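Per reviewer request, we include the raw input and output of the structure prediction for the construct analysed in the revised manuscript.
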Amino acid sequence: MDVEGYPGLVVHGPLLILVMLELLRRRQPERPARSVSYRLLKPVFCGERLLVCGGPEGAGATAAMRVASHCEDAHARAEVGFD
């Protein structure tokens, strides 16, 4: 926090990916994810409230996911592929 000027502890980015995958697993447990491609965009800080959004697109072969907060539309994005 002192070196980089962040307002708090930074959440480990790959945890955001796990949260997105968990939402898909809960919504569609019969469709396991086979691939995931993600991009971390902005840091998330401990204590921030987050919203995980997204779901299947088009024919349902992929899902577009994102993690948002009150100050950012997307902290992380992911594309998840199914069988």
